[in-house]
Amino acid sequence: xxxxxxxxxxxxxxxxxxxxxxxxxxxxxxxxxxxxxxxxxxxxxxxxxxxxxxxxxxxxxxxxxxxxxxxxxxxxxxxxxxxxxxxxxxxxxxxxxxxxxxxxxxxxxxxxxxxxxxxxxxxxxxxxxxxxxxxxxxxxxxxxxxxxxxxxxxxxxxxxxxxxxxxxxxxxxxxxxxxxxxxxxxxxxxxxxxxxxxxxxxxxxxxxxxxxxxxxxxxxxxxxxxxxxxxxxxxxxxxxxxxxxxxxxxxxxxxxxxxxxxxxxxxxxxxxxxxxxxxxxxxxxxxxxxxxxxxxxxxxxxxxxxxxxxxxxxxxxxxxxxxxxxxxxxxxxxxxxxxxxxxxxxxxxxxxxxxxxxxxxxxxxxxxx
Length: 369
Description:
By secondary structure, the chain is of the alpha/beta class. The protein is built from 15 helices and twelve strands. The strands form three sheets. It has a six-stranded mixed sheet, with helices on both faces. Strands 3-9-8 form a three-stranded mixed sheet, sandwiched between helices. The longest helix is centred in the middle third of the chain and has 31 residues, at 123-153. It is flat, with a radius of gyration of 23 Å. The protein starts with a strand and ends with a strand.
């Protein structure tokens, strides 16, 4: 599972990506600076790992991680191939969710002028520009498939009929300039959603708005960021305010310097920590833990995964030969201090193949192959 960072040129998208991945290389200040998507692995900040480590001494701690793709700046006309748009849109098609970076600052700190591709700063216009290109690209996909799909549906095969039905349902929505994600739950049933996923609809992907704010507005309370918040509220989406400039500087500091800088801006943690967690949730992911002398580790599973599926993330043999899972919570560890005491208190649960994993479970898997 991975998320793609998208946005117009010069909104701070690549600066944000580099800060997230600690790459330390800033993109040039002009459109299409990144001609191929960069892929980065971003650790998910998780204070529960530190709690587990404080009671179970271990050699190393491994957090969960998120794959991010930095997709080059999209401009108006991208769906028609403008600015290598078709290539960049194809990169978006391959990701599972979108982090849409929106410019909510006028000029760079220090007065340096960063030219907006449209000449002025207007976050709502920018959001609509990107969204329109995604919708137009989806319309091209549907219109290019309708004829062939209609002919296939005449064969009477249920899967062909279902595919044609989905295309016919989506076409009028997109023609109205509406993204597919806003209407899918209303007009598409559970089985048909699998077809939507196979179509790679860009406007069906989940979106998290990232308001790239000025140093003077780190909490995103200024008028530009508020416009994005209102837009997100109307769409049922989330917003994370981030000052990419500050985050870039923080990524190069040691812990003491970082703490001092955060305090100066009235921040409890880097905004990128909130962003990483929000992106993780956007992808429908959660973490469970294994803990021992060699390592304390967070493992990533989709929300709704069963215990055998979670075991399979560690090794396929664990899923194939799954017998049962012994599970307790981080809160139990805090209260009883060790696994022996947790068992004696009757808080160590034994779960079978049908157990649905909960975020924060600490697990031991028993298997036989």
